[in-house]
């Protein structure tokens, strides 16, 4: 992730079009991206390379379908703790990063300290995750919320106007 103190990268209309296309389908051939963006291949390639170097494009991945893999339960796990020292935070971060079922983790402002998005097969699998987590780090309170329906999910970021 980029440094929050860093100024945002300046993007022109062509950069934004390229990014929009890549967010829709990063497997598009360069020729197709160039055609849809209304530019020639070499300038589009140079812009993609520059945006990678600047950290705007962090990588390319394949998006998998959780249900096809038998992962039918998504829990949002709200974590409260009374411990905020660096040692505890390091152990908690290590425990969260070591678990592939945690697909997102955020430190929050407000009454809840952390929220985790946990994708597992079922409630029993979630309980195994939970028992494992609390055996490694002391947590004051955990609330698990089962998602009944995913109404929107995207990895596409809103690209700010120039």
From TrEMBL:
Instruction: Name the source organism.
Output: Paracoccus solventivorans
One Gene Ontology biological process: regulation of DNA-templated transcription
The upper taxonomy is:
Bacteria, Pseudomonadati, Pseudomonadota, Alphaproteobacteria, Rhodobacterales
Report what the protein is called.
Lrp/AsnC family transcriptional regulator
Identify the InterPro entries for this entry: ArsR-like_HTH, AsnC-type_HTH_dom, Dimeric_a/b-barrel, Tscrpt_reg_AsnC-like, Tscrpt_reg_AsnC/Lrp_C, WH-like_DNA-bd_sf, WH_DNA-bd_sf
Give all residue intervals belonging to the HTH asnC-type domain. Answer: 11-72
> Which UniProt keywords are present, listed alphabetically?
DNA-binding, Transcription, Transcription regulation
- CDD domains associated with the record: HTH_ARSR
PROSITE patterns attached to this UniProt entry: HTH_ASNC_2
Q: Which Gene3D superfamilies match?
A: 3.30.70.920, Winged helix-like DNA-binding domain superfamily/Winged helix DNA-binding domain (1.10.10.10)
One Gene Ontology MF term:
sequence-specific DNA binding
Q: Which PANTHER family does UniProt cross-reference here? A: DNA-BINDING TRANSCRIPTIONAL ACTIVATOR DECR, LEUCINE-RESPONSIVE REGULATORY PROTEIN
Q: GO CC terms on record?
A: cytosol
Q: Which Pfam families match?
A: AsnC_trans_reg, HTH_AsnC-type
Cytoplasm: is it a keyword of this entry?
no
């Amino acid at each position: 992730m980029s440094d929050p103190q860093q100024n945002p990268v300046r993007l022109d209309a062509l950069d934004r079009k390229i990014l929009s296309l890549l967010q829709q389908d990063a497997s598009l051939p360069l020729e197709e991206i160039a055609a849809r963006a209304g530019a020639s291949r070499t300038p589009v390639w140079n812009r993609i390379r520059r945006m990678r170097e600047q950290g705007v494009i962090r990588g390319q991945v394949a998006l998998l379908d959780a249900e096809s893999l038998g992962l039918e339960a998504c829990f949002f796990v709200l974590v409260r703790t009374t411990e905020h020292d660096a040692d505890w935070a390091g152990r908690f971060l290590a425990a969260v990063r070591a678990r592939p079922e945690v697909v997102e983790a955020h430190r929050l402002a407000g009454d809840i300290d952390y929220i985790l998005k946990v994708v597992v097969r079922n409630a029993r699998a979630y309980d195994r995750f939970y028992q494992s987590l609390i055996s490694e780090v002391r947590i004051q309170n955990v609330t698990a919320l089962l998602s009944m329906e995913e109404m929107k999910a995207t990895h596409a970021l809103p690209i700010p106007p120039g």
